[in-house]
Structures are given as structure tokens and as C-alpha cells.
Write a structure and sequence with these properties.
The complex is a heterodimer of chains A (249) and B (233).
Chain A: E1 2-4, E2 10-12, H1 14-17, E3 23-32, E4 35-45, E5 50-54, H2 61-69, E6 76-81, E7 86-87, E8 93-96, H3 107-112, H4 121-130, H5 146-158, E9 164-168, H6 176-191, E10 195-199, H7 203-209, E11 212-217, E12 220-226, H8 227-232, H9 237-243
Parallel strand pairs in A: 5-10, 5-11, 8-9, 9-10
Antiparallel strand pairs in A: 1-2, 3-4, 3-6, 6-7, 11-12
Chain B: H1 2-14, H2 18-51, H3 57-68, H4 72-83, H5 98-134, H6 139-149, H7 151-167, H8 170-176, H9 186-196, H10 199-229
Classes of the chains: A alpha/beta (249), B mainly alpha (233).
């Protein structure tokens, strides 16, 4: 049932309560430069599937992702991976940033940089094949196209076999072909049991990939619901406006 | 007179004048030793300063940047006071030896290498820090990665330090004393010979010094071009 809070923001809590084995976010607050940027975030992210974080710019999506990944320390709140009964920080995680951060080295050196020590050359070549960079292993990584760089970043994240993968708009500014390759790899990782939390502004992409959607606005969760429900029977005015392509201020 | 001085200078260089090449050898020995020690001190210092956080960090950076502009004669004077017979390290008897010149040059160029390293690594750290945190890269590996990935910029930094060491005169003349066959290097010889009016030796050494500077700069330019072409810069 939706809760009506003092700011007249509709919060759908039914989704959260149905996934008690997921990643539990309790009373998460984040303040930077005296601005409360994440305000009392409470939800349970399902253990499996792809959770989309959506909302207008400045809603707090990237900040929430960074808090979940441990790149930012929230002022208050707890993050627990219920299924493993351990703090979220202790889970095997990886993140792909909006702008690919690649070392000033060759493609294969970037891929092997953080790979497990037992990774063989064959495994590296397997990943290069998977991201369609076969034959480019000795090229300087930063000379690759935007799409290729992002694929390399994704492979570097996945080669460590994370339990949790955070994606911060990895396909922003990529062409449809590159987006398709990236989405296929992401989908496959999800099918293989990697929990994925994904930020996107692309509604089509969210419809194609997501199993549930968290909609944020002004640092608060406005709605967290199954993807199908979000795209068909959205309740909050903010999410409706966002989906209708209106400008949210 | 100038034409004669030039032709005599070229004759000294081409004939392999032993005195001239002894001076050149000592200059390179002192400069290289200073550079090696300064690299061992300055590269880690600049790197650690760039990637660490502590309350007085800005003060430390400002101090380091200020030390870059230390007048060589002041450095010479301080090292002289340190090594003179009545100074705290006077018992070592190092004054007026090549070792004293190395110490003075180390004091002079370590802040240059450390400050330039700080700038290079700080930029790289801003770019890499989230990635390293995300990939759980341990600190020693992160430091190694910074130094390797910034290699082209750091070589430029190191060569800038070498350029400063080999072309410096104020500090080495105070602590070295410009003693013939012992502490006489290119810059001190140029100053000394010019004051005597013996322009040919001074010019010969000047030509060698300029050639060295030219070779170093050409190398740096080629290195930078290679790094930019391969997106390693």
C-alpha cells in the first residue's frame, strides 16, 4: 500500500516487503556540503535480477549507487545483504562508471589488471572475444571507441565474478549497436546470478532489462516497484511525469 | 676575438682535451648521483603526498612548491654550514668534495621532483581513485600503478631535475670550491674561466652544456609525442 508522507510523496512499500532476502537499505542519509542529498532511504532490493535506478538529474541516483558500492559513506543508515546475512560491504562487488576509466596501458593489460591471479591467457582471450575486441588486445586501451572502452570496463568488472554489479549509465552516449552488445553481456551476467543495480535515463532500456525499478526524486525514493507495474500503473505524479517525458524540477 | 674563442672551443671539443672531458665526466657523475638520490626521495614523497589525506596537506604542498624556487646560493650556504668544520656534520670532512656537491644538488632538486610528481600523480589519482576503490586495489599496487601509468610525465619531471642539477652553479661552487681536478664541474668552470677572460674553455663547455640541454629536450619532446599518440599521457 502506498504511504502518504508529510511532503505528499507517494512511497510504494509493498515491493520492498516482498523481498526480505534482498539487499536491505535502512534509514540511509547522505549529506554533502550541508545539503541532505539522500533522505531516509528505506527499501529492500531483490536478491536477483536487474534493479533500475531512475529519476531526473540530481535525484541522487549516482550518490545512492556510490553509497551501496562503498565509494561514499552515508551519514546514517545500514546496508545489509540479507541473503548472505552480511554487511553489503563484504560482498564481492564491481562497478562500471558512466565514463570508462581505463589505465594508460594496452587492452589486455587493463583486463588482467584486477583479474584473479589464477586467470589464464585463454580466459583473457575468451573475455576479449565476448566483448568483441579480439585482435585489439595490444592496442592502447584509451584509443578504443567509447563503446569498446565501456565493453572493456564491463569485462574488467565481470572477470572477478562479482555477486553484485553496479552500473552507472554505462550506455549513455553509446550508439544502438554498442548498447545492444553491452545489454547482451549484462543480461547474460544477470541470468548467471549476478545481482545488477543499474542507473539509466533510457526508458526503453529500462523496459528491456529491468526486473524492478527504484524511482528517485530530490534524494528520496518515490517509488520502488516491479518493472511491469512501474511502466503500466505508475502511481506517483513524479514518475508519471518522468515517463511522459515531462521536465521534472 | 669571439671568432677565435669559438674556433678554439671547437678545437678543444674535437681534440678530446683531457681536462675538458674530466670536467664533463665529473659534472655528469655529480648530476646523475644527485638525480638518482632525488628520484628515490622525490618520487615516493610526491606520490604519497598526492594520494594521502591529512589535515596539513595543503600546507605541505605549498611548502613543497615554495622549496622548488629555493635560490641555489642559499642552498649552498645551508649545506656549507652543515658540512663546515664547526657544523653538525663537519666531522665527516665532506666540504669541498664531490659528495658535498651531490648533497647540495639533492637538496635543490628533490623538491622539484617531488612537487612535479605530486602534480602528475594528483591528476591521475583524481582519475583512478574510484576505480581502485571499486576494484579493491591494495595501496602498494595502487602506488606502483600510478608510477607506471604516469611514467612518461615522470620521465619529463626527472629530466627537468637533471637539467637543473647539471646547469646549477651557485650551490656547487660554495660547497665544492671549484678545486681543479677535484670539484671543478662545467658550470663552475664556465664562471671561473669567464672571470679570467679565458673564453675558449668557457665556450667549449657552454657548447657542450647547450648540446646536452638540446638532447634532453629533444628526447622529452619525442617521448611526449609518443605518449600522446598512444593516449598514455
Amino acid at each position: 500500500m502506498p504511504n502518504q508522507n508529510t511532503n505528499n510523496v507517494v512511497e510504494i512499500t509493498s515491493h520492498a516487503s516482498s523481498h526480505s532476502q534482498g539487499i536491505q537499505l535502512k534509514s540511509l542519509n547522505l549529506t554533502l556540503n550541508n545539503n541532505l542529498l539522500l533522505n531516509n532511504i528505506n527499501t529492500v532490493i531483490p536478491e536477483k535480477g536487474i534493479t533500475m535506478l531512475m529519476g531526473p538529474n540530481g535525484a541522487g541516483k549516482s550518490l545512492l549507487l556510490k553509497c551501496l558500492h562503498g565509494l561514499l559513506n552515508p551519514d546514517a543508515g545500514t546496508l545489509i545483504f540479507n541473503a548472505k546475512n552480511k554487511p553489503l560491504a563484504e560482498t564481492k562487488q564491481a562497478m562500471v562508471f558512466q565514463r570508462a576509466t581505463l589505465l594508460r596501458r594496452s587492452v589486455i593489460q587493463n583486463l588482467s589488471f584486477s583479474a584473479p591471479k589464477t586467470t589464464t591467457q585463454q580466459e583473457l582471450l575468451f573475455w576479449l572475444d565476448k566483448i568483441q575486441l579480439t585482435g585489439k588486445q595490444n592496442l592502447p586501451a584509451r584509443l578504443l571507441s567509447g563503446g569498446e572502452q565501456q565493453r572493456l570496463s564491463l569485462a574488467r568488472a565481470l572477470i572477478n565474478q562479482p555477486e553484485l554489479l553496479f552500473l552507472d549509465e554505462p550506455t549513455a552516449s553509446l550508439d544502438p549497436g554498442s548498447t545492444h552488445i553491452l545489454e547482451s553481456i549484462i543480461k547474460e551476467a544477470s541470468d548467471n546470478g549476478v545481482k545488477i543495480i543499474f542507473i539509466t535515463h533510457d526508458i526503453g532500456q529500462a523496459k528491456r532489462l529491468s526486473s524492478d525499478v527504484i524511482f528517485l526524486h530530490k534524494g528520496r525514493i518515490i517509488e520502488h516497484t516491479d518493472a511491469q507495474q512501474f511502466f503500466t500503473t505508475t502511481r506517483s505524479a513524479e514518475a508519471k511525469s518522468f515517463l511522459a517525458g515531462e521536465i521534472l524540477l | 676575438m669571439i671568432t677565435e674563442a669559438f674556433s678554439e672551443a671547437f678545437r678543444l671539443i674535437s681534440s678530446g682535451d683531457s681536462d675538458l672531458y674530466e670536467i664533463l665526466e665529473l659534472s655528469i657523475q655529480v648530476g646523475s648521483s644527485s638525480l638518482l638520490i632525488s628520484m628515490l626521495l622525490g618520487l615516493p614523497l610526491g606520490t604519497v603526498l598526492a594520494i594521502s589525506r591529512f589535515p596539513a596537506k595543503q600546507l605541505a604542498v605549498t611548502t613543497l612548491n615554495s622549496l622548488m624556487g629555493m635560490p641555489p646560493v642559499v642552498v649552498g650556504l645551508l649545506v656549507y654550514l652543515l658540512l663546515s668544520r664547526s657544523g653538525p656534520l663537519g666531522v665527516l670532512g665532506l666540504l669541498y668534495t664531490p659528495t658535498a656537491m651531490v648533497i647540495a644538488q639533492v637538496v635543490l632538486i628533490t623538491p622539484i621532483i617531488a612537487a612535479l610528481t605530486y602534480q602528475v600523480i594528483d591528476d591521475l589519482h583524481n582519475e583512478y581513485q574510484d576505480l581502485f576503490k571499486s576494484l579493491n586495489i591494495p595501496l602498494p599496487k595502487a602506488i606502483g600503478t600510478y608510477l607506471i601509468d604516469a611514467r612518461y610525465s615522470l620521465i619529463t619531471t626527472v629530466l627537468a631535475g637533471f637539467g637543473r642539477a647539471i646547469s646549477e652553479v651557485g650551490a656547487v661552487i660554495i660547497v665544492g670550491g671549484n678545486i681543479d681536478h677535484l670539484t671543478r664541474v662545467m658550470t663552475t668552470t664556465i664562471a671561473f674561466e669567464t672571470s679570467k677572460g679565458e673564453l675558449s674553455v668557457a665556450l667549449a663547455l657552454g657548447i657542450i652544456l647547450l648540446t646536452l640541454a638540446l638532447i634532453i629536450n629533444a628526447f622529452v619532446t619525442l617521448l611526449k609525442a609518443f605518449a600522446v599518440r598512444n593516449a598514455y599521457a
